[in-house]
Amino acid sequence: MSRDQNAERNHSVRINNSTFERVEGFKYLGTTLTYQNSLAEEIKSRLMLGNSCYHSVQNVLSSRLLSKNLKIKIYKIIILPIFLYECGTWSLTLRKERRPRVFENMVLRRIFRPRRDEVTGEWRRLHNEELNDMYSSPNIVRVIKSRRMRWAGHVAHMGEERERIGS
């Protein structure tokens, strides 16, 4: 493999007799890959897909005819898998944890609906702590971290097998 001498200017890579255009990022198997291996782009992409799914079922989540347990199952079965696809490879910093939490709280607020304040009688939005208490499952960041640990276990186990296969 060799780089064109003008690779920085024309953004291409030459391998043998083939020239490939260098791009900022692309989708591969549903995952956004960038030349800087930016997790922010992948989270942004997953949030857009999760929001799209959320908006397609938001009327169901707002319905008074369905129980809260059924709405939570809809969230876990339909919305979460779309957002969490390939999240086992994500390395979240505290700053990057914020967007998934905001997304989850938005969905949970739709499910649990506003509450009437006992003192003033006014309707108010639920606080994050109240949402966490009402939602008995692990929050979205915990799920991401547990999947990352599971992925790390798979990778560690694969290393031993690959050494035997490669020999």
Would you kindly provide a written description of the structure presented here, covering whatever features stand out?
The protein has 167 residues and is α+β, with helices and mostly antiparallel strands. Helix content is 59%, strand content 13%. It contains 6 helices and 7 strands; from the N terminus they run βαββββαααββαα. The chain has helices at residues 7-10, 39-62, 68-84, 94-112, 128-134, 140-166, and strands spanning 2-3, 12-15, 18-21, 25-28, 31-34, 115-116, 123-124. Strand 4 and strand 5 (31-34) form a beta hairpin. Helix 2 (39-62) runs antiparallel to helix 3 (68-84) and helix 2 runs parallel beside helix 4 (94-112). The radius of gyration is 22 Å and the shape is elongated. The two termini are 25 Å apart. 11% of the residues are buried. The mean pLDDT is 84.
